[in-house]
Amino acid sequence: MRCFLPALVLAVFLVPAAAAPIGSGDAVPLREGVAVGVTREGVTAYLGIEYARAGRWEAPGPAPTWEGERLFDHYGAIAPQSSEGAPSEDCLFLNVWKPEQSENVGKPEQSENVGQPEQSERDVALPVLVWIHGGGFRGGSGALSPEPIVKRGVIVVSFNYRLGKLGFFDHATWDTSHPRNFGMLDMVAALGWVQRNIAAFGGDPDRVTIAGNSAGGMGVQLMMVAEGARGLFSGAIAQAGYGAWPFPTACCVEGVEPGEDALTPMEELRKKSAAELVGEVEAFWLPFRGSGELPEQPVHLFESGKVARVPYLTGANSYDGQHTMFGAGFTVATFLALLGDGLGTAKTLYASDWKVSEAQAAQRIFGDLRYVMSARATARAMQGVGQPGYLYYYDVPTPGLPGAPHASEFRAVFADGGSAVQSYWLNFVRTGDPNGGQLPEWEPFESGQPAWMVFRERPGKASGLLASKLDFLDGLDFVSRD
Hints:
Elements: H1 7-11, E1 23-29, E2 34-40, E3 43-50, E4 69-71, E5 93-99, E6 126-132, H2 147-150, E7 155-159, H3 164-167, H4 182-197, E8 203-213, H5 215-225, E9 235-239, H6 260-263, H7 266-271, H8 274-279, H9 298-303, E10 312-317, H10 324-327, H11 332-337, H12 343-349, H13 351-356, H14 358-381, E11 389-394, H15 408-413, H16 420-431, E12 452-455, E13 459-462, H17 467-475
Parallel strand pairs: 2-4, 6-7, 6-8, 8-9, 9-10, 10-11, 11-12
Antiparallel strand pairs: 1-2, 2-3, 3-5, 5-7, 12-13
């Protein structure tokens, strides 16, 4: 079921471009040419650098080179989608923001409130945060406003990747060697570009943390299990990823019946405009499992140890199902029907929500099932590869709502003036450990016992958070019901 993605959800990830620059930035020699950025209020931005180029339903190849210096002062074309803007199938552009002065390189945050940091040496290579945008794999772009964390001594990179049917598609004529998840390959290509070029911006290629929210968090989980991404990053933050949510299976897998799209002659598909293909996607889109770049469901790859051996931080929000349940194509009735014989148990476990309304209960359960349960399962799996898995639960009160809605922690990460989330995240980007200074201690998942960091008015630890609810949802074996 695929229906209209609410504009409110998608708007979180479509951040307006920054105000006009006030000066030219440093010229940076890249593998492809010399890039010149623009500087405003202590941050130099390089916007719209092409990191790869790809034909329709083809793996990305190298980006073109250029002679001399080129000014990068505006975002590149966004991937075709149903929003305003100037989309193009040639959309593989990235952006880099670096600080003019490195204020707090390598130093832990001292409290949940960001204070005035000490000045550090300018010649120290800076940690790098690569942000993967959200938007349900059908919208969004790398447009971002990361200045608050850039000024604290972190280089930020964001990028576009292919979306919808242009980014994730399956066809009956493709064998197992043909990719289906082109947007996933774009992510790998962007990370490869970072490894080749980030040192020229003053970044440390050995301290690259990938992060993202919603579809971006799912993108992080995809990179965690992508063989092609091995060695391209040193840490990962998956905010509201959904690796334990069932993905469609590619029709090259034995026993899978091809759908209508997969049986449409390829010559007809290639004649369709990008706008026509965009119009055929009306809700959140999903990657395909069963091809070379994603052979299994992400959570199963985590659990079998086929995952990057890097520190991992993940979590979700207390009311993550608001709007996203509808954006995924469900009504209240159709979603609750998926619970089958477990509906009675759900009514008992979520009785306080049901007292308010069936709709509130459905959205709460959807958020726990799609996002919170995926966080617990993937963090737990990191024990098997000897890496820490840090879990968070964002429950900062929101006026008029029974919990923290989808993507509200995204705002906290980039908050001007700081936040507890921002402090922990910066520590993790710098060292692979969110702890430091006077922040409450955040323990990783150990010995089968999840140790959650709960963000409310102030952060605090909780060990058995939502245990009965998540155990019930896990017992539904929902990931296999596709």
